[in-house]
Amino acid sequence: MVRHQLEGRGLRDEELLRAFRVVPRHLFVKSDDPYGDRALAIPAGQTISQPYVVAAMAQIARPRGGYQGARVLEVGTGSGYSAAILGQLGADVTTVERHRSLAEEAQARLRRAGYDRIRVVVGDGSGGWPQNQPYDAIIVTAAGPDIPRPLLDQLSPDGGRLVMPVGSRDQQWLTLVERHGRAINRREVEPVVFVPLLGEHGFRE
Hints:
two-stranded antiparallel sheet, seven-stranded mixed β-sheet, about 200 residues
């Protein structure tokens, strides 16, 4: 997986590649091919992204000082795999999931895999999780029509980075935002397709 899907697509961050070698993806999905180069369905109509997409988002959102000790918010826990990667990188992770059943299952998987310090909370992720702000990085694993204002507000003003798919329900651009004080710099990175971010500041159900 690492050699062909990540290194083969140009990812060279050794710390990130090491995390993908260590985290047991098969513990987070039910599949005959958990390490395959594709997204996989999980309950509640959600998906777990293909390994390359998980890696690309983590690389794009990397704080200037690295992940070690960085405060990171993930919106959309899903299976818990992405949170495990962030935890393996040394981040202080809070991950928000709107489906209680998914959150509980992800918490159990994370504990079994040894990532029991990751905080899994249930709520409307489009509003972020203000209790632990500001965040050095925010990774949103579902697509919205625009970047929710609460997430921008919870991003560290000292170079905080946010990555999120932005666009229609059918097609989006993976978008990077950097915050410097009140200034927000925004850049579209690559086209993607994600499940919709539902909530007060996302798509309506």
